[in-house]
Each structure stands twice: as C-alpha cells, then as structure tokens.
Amino acid sequence: MAGLAGTEIDTLIFVPTVAVAVAMTGSSPGGSEKKMVAGTTANIAQDATGAVVSDIDEDTGSAVIPVPDTVVIFDFDWTMIDGNSDTFVVKQLGAKDVLEERDKFGWTQLMDMAMKVLRARGKTIEDIRTCLRRIEVKPAMSRSIRKMAATPGFEIHIVSDANSMFISCVLEAAGLSDCISAVHTNPAHVDEAGVLRVEPYQPVDNPHSCSICPSNMCKGLIVAGIRENRCAKDGRIIYLGDGKGDLCPCLRLHEGDAIFARKGKFPLLQLLREEEGRGGLKAKLISWASADDVELGLGLLLGWDK
Ligand SMILES: [Mg+2]
Ligand SMILES: [Zn+2]
C-alpha cells in the first residue's frame, strides 16, 4: 500500500485526470498472469486469481503494488471524523461571522475567505494546526481503518470537500496517514503572507458537467476515476458518507458495492432511500449512527468475526 507518511501536502492530491495505463505482461515465473498498471505514484499488479502480487517489475525495476479488489472510500467531515473540520476551525479560532456569508459564496471560496480573516485577526498556520490536532477520529473508526488498511487487497481513499491541509493534519495526529492511499480534496497551500489558501478541486476554467454536485467538486466523477484506475475489474467499492455531496458517487455504485450512509440529521440516507424506492440504487445500503456501528457493519460485511 502506498502510504502518505512523510509526503508533502501537494502529493496527497489526486487530480481527476490522473493518467494510468493498463497492460498485460504475460506470465510470471509462478505461472500467474499479472496486470500491470503504471500510475503517477506506483506500479500495481494482481494475478489472474485476483490474489495480490507485490514484487519488483522486471522491466522498470520499480516496486509493484497490487491493484486492490476492495476500495474503501471515506467522506471526511461527519464520517471519518465526527464533526465538520472547516466550521470547527473557523469557529474555534474566531471567524464564525464569516460563516454567515455562506449563502453568497461557494463553500471553498468561503473557507478561503475565512482563512484570510483568521490571518488578519492574528491567527497563524500553527494555530490552525493546533486546532485541527484536537479533532478526534473515534476509536472504533480508527480500528476499522487500521484493520482494512492491513487487509491484503484493500485500499482506502478519502474523497472530501474539506482541504488537503486540514485532512493531512488530522490524519497525522490520529496516526492514520499510513493507512490512506490517496486523499482527493480541495488543494490548500500557505501563501507568502502566511495565509492558508484553499482552491477548488475542480478548476474554475474547467467545470464538471454534473448537475447535482457543487461546482468545485463532483465526488461521483472522482469515484468513477478511482474505479477505473485503482480497482480490480471485478472489484468492489465500499463508500462511507453522510452528506448531499455523497449522493452522486453513491448513485454511480454497482451491484456488489456497499454504502454506509449516516442516519440522524444527515441527508444522505434519506436521499438514498428515496432513490432505492424508485429502483435507482444498485449498491447495498447500510445505515449507521456511530463509529461503533461502522465497525460492526464492516465486520459483518467483511466477515471479521469469522
Ligand atoms: Mg460529510
Ligand atoms: Zn456529481
């Protein structure tokens, strides 16, 4: 698994157009056929039986990392963490008033503005980091992530409308950076004035065509890209989410995939039930309220108790 430990923030970001070439390389000495995928970050291989293969590619000499047959995709706010990292930081550090402008701007733009306001009010990047380190990943969520990350054939991605700096900081503090193969989110960087700048994942001059997603990010397109580039042909996706932005990817999932949708005040579950009633949902729908439910549900789905 390609972990994220020690990587710079920029390398966490996968753009929608990551080019991955697939080619068959014939038989390996062990008699199994390998599927080679040359990506921007790693080479990947899997034998014909679906078992994962990890060795050195004879031609390129580079490490071969297996194509996962199960890709687990987490939303971040209110899913991997039990809160909203954006509003937490903004409120904790004293720019709550900026959130009152939320109807006038897109979310990414609003966060970019809030970060400028925080800097103007004397808050530093270290203040933001200190605040983010207080965000907990619940123990049962953390256990589930670690267990899946350690399972051969599994790969974990985060698809989030937060930003790269916030997510990497929380993952690092939770000791989970190594468990996550890729984070697909709005890119953030610190400018020369010490302001955290947040940019839209989807470039403004290259809009996506999805009508149900916000202009800065279509999670459905990202998940489709993950399936194409980072999942075995007959592999499955397990998607965990809570919000409206998670609807689009869930509607694109296939039979054999699974959705963990959060119940309670969160809109995704209701939206999916309506879709299910119309016969428009192919993936298995599982509801959850707490991290303990997620651990239990994943255990049942993946046979952890056996
Ligand atoms: Mg969420
Ligand atoms: Zn979409």
Structural class of the helices, strands and pairings? alpha/beta
Count of helical regions: 10
Low-confidence stretches: 1-54
* Ligand catalogue: magnesium ion, zinc ion
Write down the overall geometry.
Answer: globular
Provide a descriptive summary of the structure in words.
Pfam families: Put_Phosphatase. One of its GO terms (molecular function) is metal ion binding. InterPro entries: HAD-like_sf, HAD_hydro_PyrdxlP_Pase-like, HAD_sf, Pase_PHOSPHO-typ. With 306 residues, this protein is of the alpha/beta class. Among the domains are: 70-82 and 138-190 and 205-302, Rossmann fold (3-Layer(aba) Sandwich); 85-133, no CATH class. It is built from ten helices and eleven strands. A six-stranded parallel β-sheet has the order 6-5-4-9-10-11, with helices on both faces. Strand 9, helix 8 and strand 10 (258-262) form a beta-alpha-beta unit. Residues 1-54 have low confidence and may be disordered. The structure holds magnesium ion and zinc ion. Magnesium ion (MG) binds at residues 75, 77-79, 241-243.
Short account of what is shown:
With 306 residues, the chain is an alpha/beta fold.
Question: Tags for this entry?
Answer:
globular, binds magnesium ion, disordered N terminus, alpha/beta, three-stranded antiparallel sheet, Rossmann fold, 11 strands, 306 residues, six-stranded parallel sheet, binds zinc ion
